[in-house]
Specification:
mainly alpha; about 0% strand; about 120 residues; single chain
Length: about 120
Amino acid sequence: MTTKPYDLEERTSVFAEEIIVLCKRMKKDVVVVSIVDQLVRAGTSIGANYCEANGASSKKDFKNKIFICKKEAKETKYWLRMLAQAVDEAVSECRTLWQEAQELTMIFSKIASKTVV
């Protein structure tokens, strides 16, 4: 199987998997459970929406899905920040994942700005 040198579907899938791994390790208290729930939803939604964008029925549909990817990446950054605040041991990993979410945000912003409807 030949893979593209830059595969955004793969990158967003790996990111989602890393979010899941992090969240599975977290202690289960009333604050963390709520944050983890939101983080998993937002962090895994980025790749799912990108896959949907690639199967879009029109340029307008594609651009809308890309905007959703961007929105979910920004939300993921927020929840990573909250998790780092709630769990001291997660700060370093949250920072690393936050940086990847920031890069994804910028990538999707660029794609959206280049997409002519």
